[in-house]
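User: Hey, quick favor. My workstation is busy. Could you predict this chain's structure for me?
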Amino acid sequence: MTILLLIVVWILAVTAILSCGYLLMLTLLSAKPRVNIGFCNHLSRQQRFDVIVPAHNEQLLIERTVAGLLSIDWPREFFRVIVVADNCTDNTAMLARAAGAQVIERRHERLRGKGHALEYAFRYSQLSRWADAVVVVDADSDVSRNLLAAFAVRIADGAHAVQVHYGVREPRASWRTRLMCIALAAFHQVRSRARERINASCGLRGNGWCVTHALLKLVPYRAFSLAEDIEYGIDLGLAGYRVHYADEAYVNADMVSDSQAARTQRRRWEHGRFALLRSRAPKLLLAALRQRSVICLDLAADLLILPLSYLALNVAAMLAGVLVLRLWESSSNYANEVSRLAWACGACLAIYVLRGWQLSGMKTQGLLDLARTPFFVAWKVVTMFRSREPMEWVRTKRETP
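Assistant: No problem, here it is.
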């Protein structure tokens, strides 16, 4: 019995050490990246963009989003805002047109979901032969005015795929949105800054990303899973292209504070991510080995690293195993070693989370909200054990008009 328990504890220890060590490395590399904004010269400001807004029954928010996009600091004749009204049963299309966007309407009884909407819009953009690149912005988002300039700088410097920071639009709406703001600062900003520093791919985050038509031709968009953004980012990595990170620009989207809506949204995100872990991690590891690719190795690591709440449970399980070992055999040297490793892993996680808190700007209130983390972890675990969401575009409940 003692040997079996030791095996389990050491398996937990190895998982925690690799994961927490990796997150600590990214944290230490998360200094603000340098970018030559002045490089966005006259030539780069002539790049043409199609800003794609996938929308499914978004009549409450679409006018605000279109207005924000049309106010981007970029020559108006060099970008179009295109709303793809996907299987809408409300006034999304009409209101988007009235707000100044071009609208394409899509209806399909079987092929539903954001991935199919994006493929339809990308094909429309390609056939028009007008834009140099497409940009994806969700229908519930505010964007920084320098959004297209940030993309143009990097495209002019040779990039073909770029992701800006993805944050929370109303971070102080509730304790849950404040924790989401901290989590996104850690998951998006800390990790993406570090990956930009080591020339790895920051991946795609579903909102606020850009890809050139030249790359779309080489790597066609065929991502239709529940995590279509991560899926296409992996496709790009397997083809040898990295997603560059633009830290100076952002998209901020609504994050629900209602517990039921948040549960539905979280379940879809994490089921999609775990499905990709099973299907894509082996391919990425094999490509990393064969091609000696840092991009593929890091993308594989990003999939293999469990969500933060599960890592916290991993460390807690290690400490629980140590307690049982000491009760079973009070003089166990193994228990002392695992205990030290567990506390070290916990310290790594704390440093990573605190760096996310620092970048989030949530200040003292956010720090106090971190005390709710154990309840948030418990909520996530319960959420993941519920039934799987259907593989289609399920509109998340909106809370802002």
